[in-house]
């Protein structure tokens, strides 16, 4: 656990102690207020008992309402003080809850730190045990080498003793008296070698005892090592479980990422489709505008042709009026009938595409009678065609005017729709802000009403208590009225 965490935990504990002390002070203040209320109730009870036991003097009767009002004011002030103390206690309680939560979080962090420290300690102990095992094995190997060297030396000493004994036996057999001193020297040497052998035996015995002790220690170390291995296996199992959980979480996160990527792809494809449709619509609009320009151009050409036809018609009218043919009335009737037929075409031309088709059809209609007129060379047919062209000119003028009106009306409606959409968005934003304010006001109003109801309930309780303590069976106002009448 770091020093910063320790300082934070200490500060939280000290703050909790301070809050606890303040809470105790508030509790003591609340107890004092309750004691004061009890004392006031006792005074009221004492006044009531005095009044019932003995007749009151006139001055006391005059002071009774004043004292009662004073006590009521004091009780009300005490009630307000109790309410403020309750609010303060609730505030301190909330602070205590926050401090408890902070303390729990700090305790949790401390436990996690202790767990990490425990794991680090186990790792350090395993590493230290591993080093001790290595040192022990090195010591055992060194002792075994020393034992081998000692055994070899003992064997050499035994071989030397055997050689000396053979030499002594040989010298005895030879009867050489001169070798007596040499024999004594050899015996002394043998004695020294025997002593050295005894010392070596003692050393070997001690070494064997040390080896046995080392073996016992090794057995204990092996048991501890086995336990450590089991713990490490458990830790490894826990680690693998945690790794599996992490892998599962990673798989879940990866699946969510893939799902998000798929959703993004769908959104991109939908956006691309929308853009493409928008582009197609724009192309259609451009094409319609182009067709509109062509239609207007054709209408202008038709106007020019109609003007030319109008001039020709005027000339033909002059010629027709100059003639007094018997068939004049018949041709007029045909002209009227043709005019009635042409009036029926006005209901067809309301859209731009149909207007172009109607213009083409009318053009073909005009060309066919004109060819027939050239072939026949009939002046009356020319007059009929001129009249027909005049009617068509009027029809084209009306169509052009209607088209212009519709275009202007479309632009006005488009601008108006944009303005209405902006106004609608602004109104939605204003409504959303008003709804948030209304929600806040409703919450505050509900809290205020709840506090008001609680105050009213407390007031009723205090009034009933005062009425019972002061007047007994009569109400407080009746008691005041009776006191006023007596006065």
TrEMBL record:
Residues 47-70 are annotated as: Disordered. Residues 378-437 form a coiled coil. The keyword Coiled coil applies. Keywords: Coiled coil. This is Uncharacterized protein. The lineage of its organism: Eukaryota, Fungi, Fungi incertae sedis, Mucoromycota, Mucoromycotina. Residues 59-70 have a biased composition (Basic and acidic residues).
């Amino acid at each position: 656990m770091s020093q910063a965490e320790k300082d934070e935990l200490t500060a939280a504990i000290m703050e909790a102690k301070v809050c606890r002390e303040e809470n105790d002070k508030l509790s003591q203040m609340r107890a004092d207020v309750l004691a004061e209320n009890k004392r006031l109730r006792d005074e009221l009870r004492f006044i009531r008992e005095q009044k019932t036991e003995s007749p009151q003097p006139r001055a006391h009767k005059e002071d009774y309402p004043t004292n009662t009002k004073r006590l009521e004011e004091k009780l009300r002030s005490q009630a307000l003080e109790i309410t403020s103390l309750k609010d303060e206690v609730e505030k301190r309680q909330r602070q205590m809850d926050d401090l408890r939560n902070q303390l729990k979080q700090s305790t949790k962090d401390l436990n996690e730190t202790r767990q990490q420290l425990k794991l680090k300690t186990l790792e350090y102990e395993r590493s230290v045990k591993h080093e001790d095992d290595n040192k022990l094995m090195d010591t055992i190997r060194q002792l075994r080498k020393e034992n081998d060297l000692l055994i070899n030396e003992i064997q050499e000493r035994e071989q030397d003793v055997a050689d000396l004994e053979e030499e002594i036996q040989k010298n005895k057999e030879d009867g050489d008296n001169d070798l007596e001193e040499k024999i004594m020297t050899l015996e002394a040497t043998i004695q020294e070698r025997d002593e050295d052998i005894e010392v070596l035996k003692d050393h070997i015995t001690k070494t064997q005892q040390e080896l046995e002790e080392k073996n016992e220690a090794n057995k204990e170390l092996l048991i501890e090592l086995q336990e450590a291995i089991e713990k490490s296996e458990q830790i490894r199992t826990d680690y693998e479980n945690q790794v599996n959980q992490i892998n599962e979480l990673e798989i879940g996160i990866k699946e969510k990422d893939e799902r998000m990527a798929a959703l993004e792809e769908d959104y991109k494809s939908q956006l691309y489709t929308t853009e493409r449709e928008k582009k197609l619509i724009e192309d259609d609009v451009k094409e319609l505008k182009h067709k509109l320009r062509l239609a207007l151009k054709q209408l202008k050409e038709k106007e020019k042709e109609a003007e030319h036809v109008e001039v020709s018609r005027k000339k033909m009218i002059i010629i027709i009026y100059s003639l007094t043919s018997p068939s004049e009335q018949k041709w007029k009737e045909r002209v009227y009938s043709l005019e009635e037929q042409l009036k029926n075409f006005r209901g067809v031309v309301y859209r731009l595409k149909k207007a172009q088709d109607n213009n083409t059809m009318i053009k073909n209609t005009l060309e066919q009678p004109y060819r027939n007129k050239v072939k026949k060379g009939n002046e009356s047919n020319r007059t009929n065609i001129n009249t027909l062209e005049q009617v068509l000119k009027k029809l084209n003028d009306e169509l052009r005017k209607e088209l212009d009106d519709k275009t202007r009306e479309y632009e006005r409606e488009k601008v108006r729709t944009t303005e209405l959409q902006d106004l609608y968005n602004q109104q939605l934003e204003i409504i959303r802000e008003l709804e948030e304010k209304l929600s806040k006001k409703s919450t505050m109003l509900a809290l205020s009403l709840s506090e008001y109801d609680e105050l009213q309930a407390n007031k009723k309780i205090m009034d009933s208590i005062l009425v019972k303590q002061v007047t007994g069976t009569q109400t407080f106002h009746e008691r005041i009225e009776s006191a006023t009448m007596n006065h």
